[in-house]
Write a structure and sequence with these properties.
Layout (H helix, E strand, L loop, with lengths): L2 H4 L2 H32 L6 H36 L9 H29 L9 H33 L5 H12 L1 H15 L13
Helix pairs in contact: 2-3, 2-7, 3-4, 3-5, 4-5, 5-6, 6-7
Length: 208
């Protein structure tokens, strides 16, 4: 995972933004081509089948995006925490739990959608609204976890740079840059490169 700490901003942009974007383009191109092929063959499209395909493909793409984010933020959080000044106390274990939960949740969500389609053969008989009532709080907690990870990484980065505990006013801009990562990468990654420029041997985990 040294790649996420040592790569140039354009390299990281390709991995974090480019790969998920290409996957989305390919997935939706397949769906659209399927619709056109049905139209040209004069077969009546099955809206439920197309909806089921979208409900399967989109969560899988989101899961891949989350895994890439997990690797990026996990590598940043783990190694930035190691470089924090002794006066700064940030809970690494809580960060690891909160960064893992969204990935586990999305994997479970993908499985739920796939299984529901397999059993009912339609998206109208999945048993709504009961599952939605369960999914909503789980989804909201996943969003909270993502915001906590943004807070953790942005504060840790600024604390390492300042060599003291960063206050909200110190790292709020970094928080926004991590949130809008497709722009923030170009400003954050050079600073991350500088922080880890001289300690290759100490980066964690060492076996990756």
């Amino acid at each position: 995972m040294k790649f996420f700490l040592k790569s140039k901003h354009w390299q990281l942009f390709i991995v974090v933004v480019g790969i998920p974007l290409i996957m989305q383009i390919i997935a939706f191109a397949i769906i659209i081509s399927r619709m056109f092929s049905l139209a040209l063959s004069h077969d009546k499209p099955d809206p439920l089948a197309m909806l089921g395909l979208m409900y399967t493909v989109v969560p899988v793409i989101m899961l891949v995006c989350l895994i890439i984010f997990f690797l990026w933020f996990y590598s940043l959080g783990l190694n930035l925490h190691r470089k924090l000044p002794s006066s700064v106390n940030m809970n690494l274990n809580l960060f690891l739990v909160f960064i893992t939960y969204p990935v586990v949740y999305m994997a479970a969500f993908c499985f739920f959608i796939w299984r529901a389609i397999q059993i009912t053969d339609t998206m109208l008989n999945v048993g709504f609204p009961t599952p939605i009532l369960l999914i909503i709080p789980l989804h909201l907690f996943a969003m909270f976890c993502m915001f906590y990870c943004l807070y953790f990484v942005s504060k840790a980065l600024k604390s390492v740079e300042l060599k003291r505990e960063a206050l909200l006013g110190d790292y709020i801009v970094d928080f926004i840059l991590f949130w809008f990562y497709f722009v923030g990468i170009w400003f954050l990654q050079p600073r991350i490169n500088k922080v880890f420029a001289e300690d290759d041997a100490q980066l964690l985990p060492q076996d990756v």
